[in-house]
Design a protein that fits this description.
By secondary structure, the protein is an alpha/beta fold. The protein contains five helices and 16 strands. The chain has one domain: Carbon-nitrogen hydrolase (Nitrilase/N-carbamoyl-D-aminoacid amidohydrolase).
Length: 240
C-alpha cells in the first residue's frame, strides 16, 4: 500500500440539512488543502438530532447526501466516504443507515447498510433505540480495492463492538478499516479509543474513524475524538 494522507473528519451535525452540507464542504476543503486523498465524513453527517424529522425528510436527505458526495468527490478529486445517512426502505416508514464510498470520478465504489443497531439504555438516563426507525442491513460490509489507497473495509459506529466483522474484512485483504461514528458522550469517554485500537491491533490494519462531536439538540451529545490509528495502535488527530 502506498503512503497517503487520510482525513477523519469531525463535525457537529444538527437537524438542518443545508447547514450540515455547508459544514461538510468546509471541512472537506480544509482536508484537501492539507493534502488528503481519502476524506471520511462521520455517521449522520447530513442530519442529526431529531429522529421524527429525519424520518419525514429521509427521501430528501438521501438524494441530497448522495448528490453531495458525488459532487464533492469530483470537485476535489478525492475518494470520499459519507459515513451514514438515511435511505428509505421501500414500502415501509423505516430507513437503512447507509455509508457510501465515492471515487474521484464520482463513481460509487462501495455501499454498506449498517448491520448492528444501537438499542441501549444508558446510566446517564438517555435511551437509544435505532431499530425504531432503522432496518438492519443483511449484507456484510464490502471492501474496495484501490490502487492508490489500498484495500478499504467499511463499517459504521456500533459495528466497532463486533470484532468478527473486522476479522472478516481483514481476511478479505482489508488494510484500512473505516469506522464513521456518532458515538455517545457517555460511552465514548470509556470505550471509543480502546475499541478502535483493538480493531487496529488485532487485524494489523489502519483505522480511520471520523466522528460527530458536541450537542446536536437538547438531549443528544456525541463524544468526538475523530482519529486515525496505525496497526500498532498509535493514534493521530482528525480534521474538523
Amino acid at each position: 500500500m502506498k503512503s497517503y494522507l487520510a482525513a477523519a473528519v469531525q463535525m457537529t451535525s444538527i437537524p438542518d440539512l443545508e447547514r450540515n452540507l455547508a459544514q461538510a464542504e468546509d471541512v472537506i476543503q480544509l482536508a484537501v488543502n492539507r493534502g488528503a486523498a481519502l476524506v471520511c465524513l462521520p455517521e449522520n453527517f447530513a442530519f442529526l438530532g431529531d429522529e421524527e424529522r429525519k424520518v419525514a425528510l429521509a427521501a430528501e436527505i438521501a438524494i441530497r447526501a448522495e448528490n453531495f458526495l458525488i459532487t464533492m468527490a469530483q470537485r476535489y478529486q478525492i475518494t470520499l466516504l459519507g459515513g451514514g445517512y438515511p435511505v428509505p426502505v421501500p414500502d415501509t416508514e423505516k430507513m437503512y443507515n447507509t455509508a457510501l464510498l465515492v471515487a474521484p470520478t464520482g463513481e460509487e465504489v462501495a455501499r454498506y447498510q449498517k448491520m448492528h443497531l444501537f438499542d441501549v439504555n444508558l446510566p446517564d438516563g438517555n435511551t437509544y433505540c435505532e431499530s425504531e426507525t432503522i432496518v438492519a442491513g443483511t449484507m456484510p460490509p464490502p471492501i474496495y480495492r484501490s490502487p492508490e489507497l489500498g484495500v478499504l473495509g467499511l463499517s459504521v459506529c456500533y459495528d466497532v463492538r463486533f470484532p468478527e466483522l473486522y476479522r472478516a474484512l481483514s481476511q478479505q485483504g482489508a488494510e484500512v478499516l473505516v469506522v464513521p461514528a456518532a458515538f455517545t458522550a457517555y460511552t465514548g469517554k470509556d470505550h471509543w479509543q480502546v475499541l478502535l485500537q483493538a480493531r487496529a491491533i488485532e487485524n494489523t490494519c489502519y483505522v480511520v474513524a471520523p466522528a460527530q462531536v458536541g450537542h446536536h439538540n437538547a438531549r443528544r451529545q456525541s463524544h468526538g475524538h475523530a482519529t486515525v490509528i496505525d496497526p500498532w495502535g498509535g493514534g493521530a488527530g482528525g480534521c474538523g
